[in-house]
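#dry-run=false #mode=assembly
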Amino acid sequence: MMEHPPHSEYSENLVELALGILTGRARAATLAHVDACPPCAQELEQLARTADAVVGLAPECDPPVGFEVRASTRMRLAVDGNPTESSRADSDPADGDRRRGPLLRPPRSTRWPQAAAAAVAALVVGLFVGWAIGSPSGSRRPAQSESPVTMAALEEHGESVGRVVTYGGVTPWMLVTLTDSSVHGELRCQVITDNGTTHAIGTFSATHGYASWDAPLGVAPQDVRRAEVVRSNGSVIATASLR
Amino acid sequence: MGELSVIDGGPTDDALLAGLAVGDQEAAVMFVRRYQRRVFGLAYSMTSDASVAEELAQEALMRVWRHAPVFDHRRGSVASWVLTITRNLTIDSLRMRRATPTDPDDFAAWAMISLEHNPEDAVQREDVRAVVRAGLSTLPVEQRRAVVLAAVYGRTAQEISEQEEIPLGTAKTRIRTGLIRLRGAIEHARVIDEER
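#status=ok
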């Protein structure tokens, strides 16, 4: 059966829908039409593929040193049991507000000091590879004794605002991530060990509540009772209990 | 390390994504290796800020990991899906931070590096990106700029009208004509190739 060509009166809207820039009633009306009109649906698909192809022209570029390790580690930590990141959504994030769904949330900060990247890479590659190869099939939550990683939620007034991760091994490191805090500006991180001693770990900056920062721990991870994020005036913003 | 060294010629994108969906760690490593340059490259070419681009690229890959179980291959390739996630995140970030994005002419110029002078030549090498690149190069500058602003930066016709200081109707025409011509150039190149 010969189908009719796409409806010319929808030509402009189909282009803008394919580009993800059609809004409001025009968008709703065009989507409703496309659902009922195979030729226009096919036209939309072809235009959308063309639009996607333009995005695909972006030049490839080497990311900063350690990117791969950091990305893999984030996935690993999420798999390990962070309840926020390990939850799988049932909607497609590519939909965003462009063609179908709601706006995506703004990205979380994942700033890492470049100078530390290579050292972190060396440490975490070993950790990740060991985990990746050594984990039994189907095991997604290794026992603590099998992993030198300890994680704890950072809490501010009883609310989770991020997390602290400590890595054991030859050179212990810690990672502090703030995701839902209200703080902005320079912050300090310190840990309190079992004997009650406070150890300053370093300073980092948060931007509108978001930060991700790593540093050498300086003490044995198993001795750390809790970690604190502190303002420059000394007031404690958030605490993570590592026991 | 040997098990993690496979990059090119290894599993297909669909297979890797299926691996991500079931929590396969090796698939995650390979996926990151395969896509990190494209994801970071897109974010960087839109923002010209390496640290922001890294934030966005990391978040994009996490979202791919989170949403791998709901990927629908009928709606396009894995690459398009991954890059669309990255693009959407970058657009949101630029708007949220009120940051100035890269000039669309700069993006287009970078995109057209390794420009093929003849789309048919590009098809012969089965390089889809080269075909699109060549097709983009055939557009008049103002149409190319409008297409890039809309397709890459998510600018509406109204926003393009204001930014380019042109009537709304002109902006719509540039967008529509540009995208349709680009599609035509790509299709033409493919038809030529099939006839050979």
